[in-house]
Write a structure and sequence with these properties.
mainly alpha; UPF0718_permease; about 325 residues
């Protein structure tokens, strides 16, 4: 096995941890090949693995994020226009929080700092869809080609979505108070020790907020993996069903979670024969179009702009889902 393959298996997929948990399950008298033993092994292994990755990724991303407060971002994007500004806005979304509800305060800050509406929406779309954590976590569950293709298409949706919204002239659809929110430059003068402390605090704060969703997601994944017959799942969401992607998208919208909670479910669904595109559409709908995040967004934008955002992102998710299902053989 080459070095990269070994590092991927041991550092990202944590095969050593899987072997350790399997040995522990056997040591307490459970058969890892049985339904109960397999469920316990899946749950313990995925929970520990996700929280290890979560802690490391949040720390690194939060440290990087401390260098990009709204005012600095405005200066970075100042003077830029057109597709280049949307691309940069989407890329900045990759080093920000992990769900759309967390991204909305930053969206307000960017708008108050004077960034163009289309650029702020490129950021708002990309932030929950293609943050740096999603690359590592998808690679740990599936493979690097899947992770990189997902990120590339997610950024494409963010750029196109922001460009469309920017061209529609919907600036008047933003709530008036948003433009008068004071812009903080607090991050500009932090020392390295203060940035490290900020990153540490973010790990604690985000982990304390997402742990119920992680446990719920892993529990559902364990149930799907070990208790629900493959035939029952493929009958509804099999790769040969044209309606699988729209159904998965609709199912994901009422759910509020983040990528950490949805990945165990995605892993179990793919193992049961559900198309990769269908699973990714479900994940993206949960992270980018959940009802709580849309309710929060409606507090800062008016209904026409909210409807436009929802429509653009939905079409993008459907497009990615169908594309991945069509080209699944390239990735799996």
């Amino acid at each position: 096995m080459n070095v990269i393959g070994w590092m991927n298996d041991q550092l990202l997929r944590m095969q050593w941890l899987s072997d350790l948990v399997t040995a522990g399950v056997s040591a307490v008298g459970l058969d890892p090949a049985s339904r109960i033993g397999g469920s316990v092994q899946f749950f313990v292994y995925d929970v520990i693995k996700i929280f290890i990755l979560l802690s490391v990724l949040i720390f690194v991303i939060s440290y990087l994020q401390s260098y990009f407060p709204p005012e600095r971002t405005r200066r970075l994007l100042g003077g830029r226009s057109g597709i280049g500004a949307n691309v940069l806005g989407a890329l900045l979304g990759t080093i920000t929080p992990f769900c759309s509800c967390s991204s909305i305060p930053l969206f307000i800050g960017f708008t108050a700092a004077g960034l163009p509406l289309g650029v702020t929406f490129s950021f708002l779309i990309s932030s929950p869809l293609v943050d740096m954590a999603s690359v590592i976590l998808l690679a740990s569950i599936f493979s690097w080609p899947v992770a990189l293709a997902y990120v590339g298409l997610g950024l494409l949706v963010a750029v196109i979505g922001g460009t469309v919204i920017g061209r529609l002239g919907l600036e008047g659809q933003v709530a008036e108070f948003v433009r008068t929110v004071p812009v903080s430059n607090a991050f500009d003068h932090l020392t390295r020790r203060e940035r490290l402390a900020y990153a540490r605090d973010q790990v604690t704060e985000i982990a304390s907020r997402v742990w119920p969703y992680v446990l719920a997601g892993v529990g559902i994944g364990a149930a799907i993996h070990n208790w629900i017959p493959e035939s029952a799942i493929t009958a509804l969401l099999g790769q040969d069903k044209w309606w699988a992607v729209p159904v998965a998208t609709l199912v994901g919208i009422p759910i509020y979670a983040d990528i950490f909670g949805t990945l165990p479910i995605a892993e179990a669904l793919v193992a049961k024969g559900v198309g990769l595109g269908t699973v990714l559409a479900f994940m993206m709908a949960v992270t980018a179009l959940s009802l709580p995040s849309l309710v929060m967004l409606h507090r800062v934008v008016k209904l026409p702009l909210l409807a436009t955002f929802t429509g653009v992102v939905t079409l993008g998710i459907l497009g990615i889902g169908f594309t991945f299902n069509l080209l699944a053989g390239w990735f799996i």
